[in-house]
């Protein structure tokens, strides 16, 4: 998901440098920053000190609805889509480069899936109950399909596929009867997507907390591809050389607002729902992501406000590494057991949390501080890598 673009020299005049030819560099600092903020948010919400004490915005909606936390994953897939355009646009027009591009896309997708599958296995390596799908696995699948669509399709075809995936998913989820459950419905365990997960993945290989369905399941991956295609379309718009940067920003806000409104209208009969990745959710989250990227683009790449960006750029250029390490390190520390004041054997994370944080803060603030500490620690590591130009491309 890394791009290979150059940053405009700091000495270049800001307003004058953004011309009709859009001479802004090929590497968007704003895209790295947006990606970095998104990954930092992922780490924040995944590492509370206590899952029983979490501020409401840092929790997922129970079912229908959307919290700020529910926006993190679609934002990342949207960014994947934008990055695809910047990464392979140079190979798109030369068909002789397509075989090499497809090979590279396939290898990267397999790496992402393998990393996610490894995290599902680690540290028990129990293949009988391992969760087959997950966050990194979905990123890998979506990256593969969205990249191939972009490489082999023109803009009109991409728009047609983007809409078709959303409409077909809506029709399937709302009108196809569910075997063993009766008429189509959108309830957690009796909807069509859950039935397909149980049929193909089986209950042994779905999300452990639900057992009977998977929030990164098979059917809901289809609209997730549309989330990435949303990003692809925005990336195509941002790469246009016949539109100046200011007009790009204005129209990104317009497109974003239109998508948000469309998502809220569709929500009235196909509720916004992250676990089902509903079509209304794709439009709503995609619209917000477009507006957020437009704001970053305007402030950072056009106006040149880069003073605060380095920590997030560090996260952004090593996004998958940061996410992978955040889970791998935590799971590894769980293996280290210590005896607490009550004589109980607990993992070292809980031991330190109970000893160093819990006594000094309210339960909900202690939980938040624990999560913030993890973000700061990972940020320090990413800054260390960034300063030494260590970028691990997955």
TrEMBL record:
<keyword id="KW-0808">Transferase</keyword>
<dbReference type="GO" id="GO:0016746">
    <property type="term" value="F:acyltransferase activity"/>
</dbReference>
<feature type="transmembrane region" description="Helical">
    <location>
        <begin position="217"/>
        <end position="237"/>
    </location>
</feature>
<keyword id="KW-0012">Acyltransferase</keyword>
<keyword id="KW-0812">Transmembrane</keyword>
<feature type="transmembrane region" description="Helical">
    <location>
        <begin position="312"/>
        <end position="336"/>
    </location>
</feature>
<feature type="transmembrane region" description="Helical">
    <location>
        <begin position="158"/>
        <end position="176"/>
    </location>
</feature>
<protein>
    <submittedName>
        <fullName>Predicted acyltransferase</fullName>
    </submittedName>
</protein>
<keyword id="KW-0472">Membrane</keyword>
<feature type="transmembrane region" description="Helical">
    <location>
        <begin position="368"/>
        <end position="386"/>
    </location>
</feature>
<feature type="transmembrane region" description="Helical">
    <location>
        <begin position="71"/>
        <end position="88"/>
    </location>
</feature>
<feature type="transmembrane region" description="Helical">
    <location>
        <begin position="281"/>
        <end position="300"/>
    </location>
</feature>
<feature type="transmembrane region" description="Helical">
    <location>
        <begin position="249"/>
        <end position="269"/>
    </location>
</feature>
<feature type="transmembrane region" description="Helical">
    <location>
        <begin position="132"/>
        <end position="151"/>
    </location>
</feature>
<keyword id="KW-1133">Transmembrane helix</keyword>
